[in-house]
Automatic annotation (TrEMBL), chains A, B:
It comes from the Bacteria. It catalyses: L-aspartate 4-semialdehyde + phosphate + NADP(+) = 4-phospho-L-aspartate + NADPH + H(+). The lineage of its organism: Bacteria, Candidatus Magasanikiibacteriota. This is Aspartate-semialdehyde dehydrogenase. CDD domains: ASADH_C_bac_euk_like, VcASADH2_like_N. Pfam families: Semialdhyde_dh, Semialdhyde_dhC. Belongs to the aspartate-semialdehyde dehydrogenase family. Homodimer. The active site is at C126, H239. Residues 2-117 form the Semialdehyde dehydrogenase NAD-binding domain. It comes from Candidatus Magasanikbacteria bacterium RIFOXYD2_FULL_41_14.
Length: 331, 331
């Protein structure tokens, strides 16, 4: 298959390359493209050194599938160009996710919908994607009434600039220098910032509403009650989420754990006596979402569970999901 | 008044001294006491330099009130000695908090109960104390049905050793050295650890259950449904909490904000257009708990609110509360 990555030099773009390598994706040609300032860069892959090229009509003409990982503006500009060149777009931006005609796909949950595409398939938000895997186990087996979530999100969710700013502030602090703030709205080192993406008129941020809108769409449950508080932390990689769920039928930690052990995309890390529970440090670079701290809810009793998850938002929450969508189209 | 501080060299003990100074507490004599390894140390105060002494019968004989800030073991050993010497104990440990005969007091909420003491008054857990102030405004005015909380807690909640470990890991990281882990169960720099205090048989940690037990006791609402997920972060000082509340009667962000503006112990920091919301960096060293991100709950609709708080857990959540209890006994 001929593949293109648009935004190949960004944090998600590089994860897509790594993912294609690790999963031995059957590639005939891999084309890497990016904005003007990265054109000409050389990226090493297991298929040889690849020179970053411009985003062009020819790129899409040569490609069967293009991964778009360069943000909404680039998707808006170039997705139509890919379409007229019969190149299927797997788009990681939020631009098309809420379009009823665009499938929003997590292959482990609703992979079949990918085939209803009209040239474009949307990849979910990373925070949504990580939580959806264990939540779907509850939805399928017990039915979900309510989801209440608080997140613990890494700076790399804001791209390379976010990661750089945390690294730089650590060095500045260690050298007794003043901390420079530019990417985030406040100092991120030693801080907690309850603000990711723009604020909406209802007081929630767009990041929080993405979790609501996307979970409802992927689960085909527009009625599902969900709320989220999204918080940025001085963590390099992997998002964590504290989740409280009310179910329609009775549920227990034991039943949920048994079902999780038979599920793909999730890894049960839940032995508190041994100090084992999900953390970003252990979840990073994993294909699965870590889940633990599973306990009966003190709020919803026999109809509720509480748990904690950590998942690599760049890999599991973005690149891997996109590559898994592409894998559906391997003949 | 003659005051003693037991554990005067610890992180909370030092905050109590600072608090007594800032509030011009009418002190005749201030006695500072600590464990053997700190005896003889000199601590500078606005009442002169004070030499740290042993915890003894004489200490309590000379004192009207003793603040205990050295943990449960010291409280267990020495609170009885204070009592037989007619010295009122204000205890910051969790040891006596759940004894129905011991008042558990947040002066802004249930100050009158302090006078029902039998020689000892318990100071609440810092995470509980911070949340209780805004929650009490909801309880008084709308009645609370359910509270769902996830916390973002600073390393200084684990004492000086916790703070030192984070500082040391920052320096080690900046110098490309291996990170030494000793106080926390995992590396804390760049990490999220959903584990504070010991695990209970119901799967919740003791820190989480403290929030449940203590809020129920302080609010005199043993039926109140509360759940908590308590998480340690690489933050130096001030705890934050993401809170979802279901109320008994209809509530709105506007009504809640108006009531908060008339309340003591809380500071409304809620102008998202200006990037203003609670953060530990702005909440530290404040007497008030910062509250913001107030919005109608997507889960509980007109009967629910969601908000975010940050409060200095050493000062507002511990020392200030203890000093305010002592102030009730100034003639």
């Amino acid at each position: 298959m001929n593949l293109a990555i648009v935004g190949a030099t960004g944090v998600v773009g590089r994860e897509v390359i790594k993912c294609l390598e690790l999963r031995n994706f059957p590639i005939t040609n891999l084309y890497l493209a990016a904005s003007a300032k990265s054109v000409g860069k050389i990226i090493k892959t297991i298929w040889g050194e690849i020179k970053v090229r411009e985003i062009s009509s020819k790129l899409f003409e040569q490609s069967d599938i293009a991964f778009f990982t360069a943000g909404s503006e680039i998707s808006k500009l170039f997705a139509p160009l890919a379409k007229i060149n019969n190149c299927l777009v797997i788009d990681n931006s939020s631009l098309f996710r809420y379009d009823p005609l665009v499938p929003l796909v997590i292959p482990e949950i609703n992979g079949a919908e990918a085939f209803n595409h009209s040239g474009l398939i949307a990849n979910p938000n990373c925070t949504t994607a990580i939580a959806a895997l264990p939540l779907w186990v509850l939805e399928k087996n017990f039915g979900i009434k309510k989801i209440i979530m608080s997140t613990y999100q890494a700076v790399s969710g804001a791209g390379q600039a976010g990661l750089d700013e945390l690294e730089q502030q650590v060095i500045e602090y260690a050298n007794h220098q003043e901390l420079v703030v530019s990417k985030f709205s406040h100092q991120i080192l030693f801080n907690v910032i309850p603000h990711i993406d723009s604020f909406q008129s209802n007081g929630y941020t767009k990041e929080e509403m993405k979790v609501v809108w996307e979970t409802q769409k992927i689960f085909k449950r527009p009625d599902l009650a969900i709320s989220c508080t999204a918080v940025r932390l001085p963590i390099k990689r992997a998002h964590s989420e504290s989740v409280v769920v009310q179910t329609k039928s009775k549920v227990s930690p034991e039943k949920f754990k048994k079902l999780l052990s038979q599920s793909v995309g999730v890894e049960l890390v839940d032995d508190v006596a041994l100090g084992q529970y999900p953390t970003p440090m252990t979840a990073m670079n994993k294909f699965s979402v870590e889940i633990g701290r599973i306990r009966q809810s003190l709020i919803f009793g026999e109809y509720g569970l509480e748990f904690f998850i950590s998942g690599d938002q760049l890999l599991r929450g973005a690149a891997l999901n996109a590559v898994e969508i592409a894998e559906l189209f391997i003949n």
